[in-house]
Amino acid sequence: MADAPYAPWVLSGEALVAVVPGRRARGLLPPELRPLPGPVVVAGVRYSGSPVGPYHELAVGEPARLGTRPGLCITTMVVDSAESRAGGRLNWGYPKQLGTLLWDDDGDERELRWLERNIAIRVRPVGPPAPVLVPLRALQRRSDGPVVVPGRLRGRVRLARAEIAVPGVDALAALAGRRVGAVVQSLRFSVLPARRPIGRWASP
Asked: Which domains does the chain have, with CATH numbers?
C-alpha cells in the first residue's frame, strides 16, 4: 500500500522521554498480555524522516509480558499523520489514533503537547550527550493476533528533567508530575517486521 508502507521502517528525528516509576497508566492491555511491575515510559517524538514523511508522535508504554517474553506494550499512541496511523496499525498493531500535536523549542527545553487532551511532555537537558544503542521489544495485538515487535534505537542521549502534564480527570492522570527523563538527538529508530510468537505464548 502506497499510503502505509510495510515494515521494516527506519525513522529519524528527536525524542523526549520520561520515566514514571511505580505507577501504571491504566491502559487496556490486550487479553493475551499480563502486566509486569516496572516504570511506565512516556515518549514524545518529532520524526523528521520516515517512510511516510515527517510527523509527530506521543506514546505511553507499559511493562508487560507475552508468555515468558517481557517487553513494553504501547497502550496509548497518537500521531498527526494518517499514513503513520495506517502503517502502525497494519504492521505492528500499535493503537495509533489521530490528534493535533504541537512541538515547541524554548532554548534547550523541548515540549510536545497533545491539544485534544491537553497532555504534554516537557524536558530540559541537564547532562552532556553520550552515544546510545538500545534494543527494543514491543508486545502488541494486531488484527491476526498477538505479535512481538523488535526494534533498535540509536542516537545521542542527554539526561533531562522531565515533566508530564495531564488533566486530573484524564485516564492518564497518574502519569502527571516531575520525572527523570532524557532527550535523544540524532535519533535513528528501526522498527522491524512483527513476529507471531510460537509455543506457550499465552500461558499466564
From this structure: 9-191 (2.40.400.10)
